[in-house]
């Protein structure tokens, strides 16, 4: 799909103009992939007002030709240095570089070819707004995760270890066409559910436990992200129902706040104020959500400390949690695409029920 990558480079050219530089040197491999389709492990990209030049080493010549047929190829191991060496010939005086990514050492090697101008996360900002190709990959990743979880919920979890359930969920996602799990699956039972990013252990899932599962699938490089919390074996205890209803209400408030143009802090606040009003503010120890795409965590971050506003066609997670140390915790997380109200409002990608289920 070369035309999609060219369209993305056109958007970058607008940022290049706004930053008053003649070209951008892209060294972050995820950003190189976003702008060209090339997925090799050594590359850099130079984008000027009228051309794009991809550098990679000899191992990847055939792959680059297949994935990025519409850009000129330079074969060199020291990719970024080779591209900056072309600055003079391309009449690039001011060269924008990814200042959040280039090391001090690389900066030293690039110096002297052109005036180096920090560009900051310009490509990451472009990446927040997804095109339809990206959204359909995310939609498929979320559907695979939903289907894999449905199979796990039909079976038995009581008596199995956290690790067993995590492995089983990942295997089923692969069987359904995921290229990988989106990240290391979190399965956390009982008191472990109070640890936000618990790593699955050999603890067995027991009667009366809360069971928190946070996982996703990766499709064509795009990551889905979903958390559900269940009760195992027994009718939920009153404290479990109370906590669940609270997190559910906060999550709904966060979802309902998703609108193009809204301040990121206002989205966080919509959910957080619900948790705070119930006296659990200190037990909600992380941001409300994050962008997803070619990375599992990417811009925008939705937190009390965020700056900026949401934009249409931005996929984000909404994932409030309340964690009672040593007792248990609940998190409910969806991936949604922000859309204009006239476009139907936020599109829910992770459709597994959010009712409190009791698992066998
Ligand atoms: Zn998650
Ligand atoms: Zn997440």
Textual characterization of the structure:
The chain has 360 residues and is an alpha+beta fold. The protein has helices at residues 2-18, 29-36, 61-67, 79-84, 104-110, 122-128, 132-154, 162-175, 238-256, 264-277, and strands at 23-26, 43-48, 52-56, 72-75, 94-97, 115-118, 180-181, 186-189, 210-215, 217-219, 222-223, 226-232, 289-291, 298-302, 315-318, 321-324, 328-331, 334-337, 347-348, 358-359. It folds into 2 domains: 2-127, Creatine Amidinohydrolase, Chain A, domain 1, CATH 3.40.350; 132-359, Creatine Amidinohydrolase. The chain is built from 10 helices and 20 strands. The termini are far apart. The model has no long low-confidence stretch (mean pLDDT 97). One zinc ion (ZN) binds next to loops. Residues 225, 290, 317, 319, 333 line the site of one zinc ion.
Q: How is the secondary structure organized here?
A:
Elements: H1 2-18, E1 23-26, H2 29-36, E2 43-48, E3 52-56, H3 61-67, E4 72-75, H4 79-84, E5 94-97, H5 104-110, E6 115-118, H6 122-128, H7 132-154, H8 162-175, E7 180-181, E8 186-189, E9 210-215, E10 217-219, E11 222-223, E12 226-232, H9 238-256, H10 264-277, E13 289-291, E14 298-302, E15 315-318, E16 321-324, E17 328-331, E18 334-337, E19 347-348, E20 358-359
Parallel strand pairs: 1-5, 3-4, 5-6, 12-20
Antiparallel strand pairs: 1-2, 2-3, 7-10, 8-9, 9-12, 10-11, 13-14, 15-18, 16-17, 18-19
